[in-house]
Amino acid sequence: MISTKEDTVLLIIDLQDRLIPTIYAVEKILINIEALIRTVRIYQIPILLTEQEKLGTTVPEIKDVLRNFDSYEPIRKLDFSCYRNEEFRRILEQSGCSNLVICGIETHICVIQTALDLMEGGYRVQIPRDATSSHTKEDFETAIERLRDSGAVITTTEALIYELTEKAGTREFKRILEIIKDRRYRLKLGEIETT
Question: What was the pLDDT predicted at 191?
């Protein structure tokens, strides 16, 4: 399964200020999610953002990037699975897309329940494993294994960016290279593992 620009939605789940402080490898996932946002905006790929009620708002690092692209329009939810939220389903159906790239937190709760429900509903799901996490490494790794076993495609941020880009030599490719270089520099600067 290859992600195409024409049939993909980026879903960012619950990157909220009350959850973030205790998330495993949080610096890495925020850098990678920012790179994904910058990439999908180049290709005019829709972005869906959720916020779990009573957990605050999206962290400033991500909220500011989304606002720069006029894309900060959170869908508030109570369900762990985004797909069980009526507003989310309506907006997703209106997009006409059948492939979702899912990132955010927590992998073993909202990410996995959303992915499983989406696949049950006939959608294709890709999870960049370096753009999602949980409070513990064990919960994260177990959820990734279950997602893979259930039919989700597990990938990485950089692999997905190149998949959406398709080829070198275009005007967009030059902008993508800037995103890739910035991402790699920031990960290296913090000596953050990429997977």
Answer: 65
